[in-house]
Amino acid sequence: MTQKLIVLCTLFGFAFGFGQKVKFDKNKPKDQFINEIISKMTLEEKIGQLNLPSSGDFTTGQTKSSNIGKNIEAGKVGGLFNIKGVERIRDVQKVAVENSRLGIPLIFGMDIIHGYETAFPIPLGLAASWDVSVYEKMARISAQEGTADGINWTFSPMVDISRDPRWGRISEGGGEDTFLVSQMSKYMVKGYQGDDLAAKNTMMACVKHFALYGAPTAGRDYNHVDMSRWTMFNTYFPPYKAGVDAGVGSVMMSFNDVDGVPATGNKWLIDDVLRKQWGFDGFVVTDYTGINEMIAHGMGDLQQVSAMAMNAGVDMDMVGEGFLTTLEKSLNEGKVNIAQIDAAVRRILEAKYDLGLFEDPYRYIDSKRAKKEVFAKEHVAEARRIATESFVLLKNENQVLPLKPDAKIALVGPMADAADNMPGTWSVAARFEASVSLKMGLKDKNVVYAHGANLVDDKVLFDNATIFGKKPKWDERSADELIKEAIEATKNVDVIIAAVGESSEMSGESSSMVNLDIPVAQKRLLQAMYDTGKPVVVVLFTGRAKTLMEENEKADAILNTWFGGTESGNAIADVLFGKVNPSGKLPLTFPRSVGQVPIYYAHFSTGRPLSDEKSDGCTFEKFRSNYLDECNTPLYEFGYGLSYTTFDISNLKLDKTTLNQGGSLKVTVQVKNTGNYDGAEVVQLYTRDMVGSISRPVKELKGFQKVFLKKGESKTVEFNLTTEDLKFYNAEMKFVAEPGEFEVFVGNSSNAKLKSKFELK
Ligand code: BGC
C-alpha cells in the first residue's frame, strides 16, 4: 500500500514539476524550499543527488566513474570532485543548471588538505606549530583560494589519531594526541567554514576518516582495526566530535572496519554515534569507492553493500556508483526504503542551500577572483611564516645553529634539490613549478652543492616511492662516486648541511613502511660527512616519525622540516640563519626503534612499571614492563622541540587545592626567556588522574599556549582547567569526572616535571 502511494506521489511530483527548473525564492523558508524540490524529483534524480563522481581517468580505488557528462544532464550527479580550473567548473555547472531537468546545481569538492595552489606544511607539520591561529589561518587561506577557483567543499580536516609511524597517512593528520588533534579539528573547520557558509570565500569542510583509520594493524594502510570501545571514545573519537561540535558540514567514512563492520556500512558508527549521540546533522560521504570495497571486505555483492551503506546512514557515494546502479532495485525489493533515500537527498540539498548554490550556482565561479586570489603574494608570505613555525629543532650541539650570514656551506643530499617534493603528500592543486627547494632557498649564500647520494639504493623502491613523478634526482653514478664528489665539496667549508630523509610520496596514502630509519644510501653519505670532522647539520624531510638514533649521536644539529609546502627552502633558510627562531614541538613520539611502536606519551601504567619513575627508562629490570634490548623511553618525546634560546618555566601555582564538580581551577606558571635570542615557547599542561574506575593514562595534555618572549623577558601564563576537561568514559561508558586526586604537570614537553596536585570532590 505505502509502496503504491510512493509511486503515485512520485508520478504526481514528476508531472507537476516537469520542465520546471528549481528557482530560488529568498522568501521561502529553507525547509519548504527543499521539500518542494524533493516533491518534484523522480526516483532517478533523487538517487542521482547521492552520486559523487571524480573527474578525470585516474583512479585510486576499485573502479571509476562512468559517463559523467551524460549523467549530469540526466540529473544523475550530485557533485563532482578534483576538477580544477574556474572555467572548466563553470562549464560543468552550466550543464547541470541548464541541461538537467530540474537544474539543481552541483557541489564541487577537492582534496584541499594543506593549502590550494599555495601549499602549506603537511598537516603533521602544521600540528607541530602548536599554534591554533596557524591551523585556522591555513584553512582560511585555503578556502580563500579554493573558492576563488570554483571549489566549495574540501575533504579536510583529516583528524585520524595515529600512534603508528609505519602508517604513511600519519603525515595527513595531527599526530598522536587526542587534545592536540581535537584543537586542530576545531580550528581548521572554523578556518574553512567561517561564520557563514554562503559567503563567497568560505567552503564546506569534511571531517575524515570516520573512524579509527589511523590505527590499522601493523601500520599497513587499509588494514583491519581492532579497538576497545573505551579507547575509541576516550582517545580516537574526540577529534571527529570536535569537528562536529565546530559545525562541520560533512563527514567522510573510513576504509577500515570497526568492530568487524566496514565503517561505510557501520550503522552503529553513523546512525548511533555520529548522528544520535553527537547530533551531527550534515551529510555523510563515503571515501573513494568505499561502498564497492565492502565487497572485498566480504559483505556481499554490489547491491547488498550499497543497501548496507544506505541502511547505515551514508548519504553520498564517492566514485563507485553503487547507489546509482542498485538502489532502485533495492527499493523495489524492500531492502531500503524511500524515507532513507529522501533523508539523504535532503541532507545534500541542505548543504547546497547553505553554500548559497541555489541562490547563485555560479557564486564561487569568478575568473577575476581566481586571477587575483589564487597564489596571491600575501598567501605565499604566510606559507613561509607558517612553515618556519612548523619546523622542530631536535638537536643543536654547541649552538652550531644559527649559522653566521657568511658561513661557507657544503649542501649535500638527495632532498636538497627536490623542489617538487616540497609541497608534500596530498597537495593536488599545488604549484609545484613555483615551490622552493633548499638549494634555491640558499641561493644567495655561500654554498657548494653536491647530490651526494640517491634517495635509496634500490631503483624499484625509488620508482614505487615516487610513483606520481615527483622524483628527487636519480644519479646513475655509483654510490662511491657520489660520496667522493660530496667530500670534495666539503673541502673549504665551515659547515655541512645534509638534506636527507624521505621523498614526499614515501608518506601519504598507500605508503606504509616497516623501516623508519633514514635509507641506507643516505646514511652512507652522512657517515662520510661526519668523517670529514666538519659540523654536520641534518635537515630532515619526513612525513612521519623516523628512528634517528645514529643521527642523534653523530650529527651536530638536526632540524626536522617535515614537508614545509611551497616556501620550504626559503623558510628553512630563515631558520638556519636565525632570521626566525624555531618553535615547533613534536606532535608525535619519535621512537628509538621501530620495535617500540606503538609508543606514545599518554600510555597506561602497568602493574609492573619500572621501579623508579625518575629513572631514564633505560635500566633493565627483570619482571618489570621493559625490553631486554632497548629502553622504554623514546628518542624524542611528544611535545619536544628546542629553540636557539632557553626558557625557564617555574612557580607553578594552583588557585585551589580542591575542585567541585562543575567548577574550574586556575593554573599559573612563570615563563622566562633566559637565553640570547627572542623566541617562542610552547607551555604545555598535563594532568594525571591518580585513581579511576578504569586505568588512566600516566599523563594527558589538557592545554597549551605558545608565548613569544624577548630575551630576558618573562610572562605569567595562565590556564583554566575545568571539570569538563577531566571527564572520560569510565567502566560503565559514562562520561564523567571521577572524584579523587589529580596531578598537574607544566613544562615544555610531555616530560614536564614541574608538578602540583588537587582533589576533585
Ligand atoms: C582518500 C581520501 C580522499 C579521497 C578523495 C581517498 O583515496 O582516502 O582522503 O579525500 O580519496 O580524493
From TrEMBL:
GO molecular function: beta-glucosidase activity
The organism's taxonomic lineage, starting at the top: Bacteria, Pseudomonadati, Bacteroidota, Flavobacteriia, Flavobacteriales
Main localization of the protein described in the UniProt heading: periplasm
Record-annotated Fibronectin type III-like domain positions: 681-750
Localization, UniProt: Periplasm
Membership in a protein family: Belongs to the glycosyl hydrolase 3 family.
Root EC class: hydrolase
EC number(s) recorded for this UniProt protein: 3.2.1.21
Pfam families tied to this protein: Fn3-like (PF14310), Glyco_hydro_3 (PF00933), Glyco_hydro_3_C (PF01915)
Gene Ontology biological-process entries: glucan catabolic process
Designated name of the protein: Periplasmic beta-glucosidase
